[in-house]
Amino acid sequence: QRAYLESVRPTLFTVEQFSLAQPAFTGPAVRNLIFRAEPRYSSRGQVPGNGLLECGAIVRIGRKVLIHEKRFLEWVERQNEVQK
């Protein structure tokens, strides 16, 4: 039954938990990706977000920010495809 629940329930991590589960991504690197997820303005005009919000990899509950592991890793794979 536990295996079934793990396959159905999404895996949500805090930034610290995610960086421990996925050591390729340090905490500061993940925070930077989260910061750049939303469209923002710079001195050169509007800068688009990186797509993490659109794919649902970032879940916000009040001030708490959680990372949906599967969607985040799928987003990483898509980034690799875009660069080819």
Q: What kind of sheet is the major sheet?
A: 3 strands, antiparallel
Query: Number of helical runs?
Result: 4
What proportion strand?
Answer: 15-25%
Helices and strands, in order, run as HEHHEEEEH
Shape: globular
Helix/strand/pairing category: alpha+beta
- State the separation between the terminal residues, measured CA to CA: 41 Å
Mean pLDDT level: 88
Q: Which stretches of 5+ consecutive residues score pLDDT under 50?
A: none
Strand order of the largest sheet: 1-5-4
Task: Report helical residue fraction.
Answer: 40-55%
What is the rounded Rg?
14 Å
Describe this structure in words.
The protein is of the alpha+beta class and 84 residues long. The chain has four helices and five strands, in the order H-E-H-H-E-E-E-E-H.
Characteristics:
84 residues, alpha+beta, three-stranded antiparallel β-sheet, two-stranded antiparallel sheet, 20% strand, globular
Question: What's this entry about, in short?
Answer:
The protein has 84 residues and is an alpha+beta fold.
Give the topology, please.
Layout: H1 2-8, E1 12-13, H2 15-21, H3 27-35, E2 40-42, E3 45-47, E4 58-61, E5 64-68, H4 69-83
Antiparallel strand pairs: 1-5, 2-3, 4-5
